[in-house]
Amino acid sequence: MSYQIKPWQDLTICDDYMFKLIMRRKRICKRMLEKILQVPIRDITYPEEEKNMKMQYDSKGIRLDVFVADDENTVYDIEMQVRKPEDDGLYRRTRYYQSMIDADLLERGADYDELNSSYVIFICPFEPFDRGRHIYTFKNLCLEDKDLELGDGATKIFLNSVGTADDVTPDVKCFLDYVNGVLSNDDFVQEIDQEIRAVKKLENERVRYMTYAMKMQEERKEGIKEGIKQGREQGQHLANERWGKLMSLLLKEKRYDDAAKAAEDAEFRETLFKEYGI
Questions:
Q1: Any coiled-coil ranges, and where (predicted)?
Q2: Which one of 201, 216, 249 terminates a domain?
Q3: Residues 237-244: what's their mean pLDDT?
C-alpha cells in the first residue's frame, strides 16, 4: 500500500501533525486540560527539547504527541488516537507511555517517592470500550475494596468523540464534536479552528509539514523494503528447510530416482512434500 501525503490545507485537528502543532499553543493546550479535568491550572510548561527527546523516541519508535507539565508538577501526555487497533494494544499502550514518563523522570535523578502525578489522555474518534461514554477515567483500585485507591498518582483517560451518554460538560462535548468535523459556536472550538486556519496561511509551516511528510513517506518506503527483504529471506530459509527434510527422507529410503526428479520437477516436488507432510 502506498503512503499518500495529505494536502496541507486538508489537515484537521485529528491529524497527528496538526494536533501537535496546535497543542504547542500554550493557551489552547491549557484550556483543553482544564476542560477535560474540570480543574483550574495556573500554568503549563513544555519540557526542554533535549530532555524531551528521550520521551519522543524510544526503541520501538513511539513518540509522545503532546507532553506538558503544570505548575503543580503534574505531567500530561495527550495523544490523538485516530485508528482503533484490532486487539487490546490501545489499552496496553497507555501502560507503555506511563513507563516512558516514569523512566524519564527517574533518569533525571528523581526518587520513587518523588515521581510526578501523571495523566495519559487518549482522544479517540471511535468508541474504545463499547459503553457509550464520552469519557473513561482509570485509576489503580483495590479489586476487593473499590473505595480503596492505590494512590500511585497515575491516571489514564480516554475521550470518545462518538459517545452517546450525557457525561461531559457542553464545552467538552463541543470539542469532541469538532474532532468529528462538526464546527460549533463554542468559543474554545472557535479558537482552535481559527488557529488552524491561521497556521495554514503560514508558508513556513506548510514547508515544515511537507518536509516532515516526505520524511515519513521515505521512512515508510524503507520499512516496506526491509519487510519484503526479511520476508524473502525467511521464505528462502523455510524453503531450504523443507527441501532438506525431503531429501533426507528420500535418501534414507533409497529413493534416489525420486530425489533426482524432485530436484528438476517442481510439481513432483510438491507432491512429495504432501506425501511426507512437510
A1: 185-219
A2: 201
A3: 74
**Rounded to an integer, what distance in angstroms lies between the CA atom of residue 140 and that of residue 155?**
8
* C-alpha cell belonging to residue 167: 457525561
Domain count, the chain: 2
34 within a domain of the structure (yes/no)? yes
In-domain check, residue 227: no
In a domain, 157, yes or no: yes
pLDDT computed for residue 233 by the predictor: 62
| Cβ atoms 79, 121 nearer than 8 A | yes
Range of the domain at 259: 235-276
Alpha-carbon separation of residue 210 from 7, 11, 17, 49, 203 (angstroms): 9, 12, 11, 22, 11
Both 120 and 163 in one domain: the answer is yes
* Rounded distance between C-alpha atoms, residue 155 and residue 75, angstroms: 11
pTM recorded for the entire structure: 0.74
Overall residue count recorded for the chain in this entry: 278
- 3-state secondary structure (DSSP) of residue 121: strand
Cβ proximity of 196 and 12 under 8 Å: yes
Q: Quick check: is 182 in a domain?
A: yes
Looking at the structure, do residues 65 and 169 belong to the same domain, yes or no? Answer: yes
> Phi then psi for 70, rounded to 5 degrees?
-100, -175
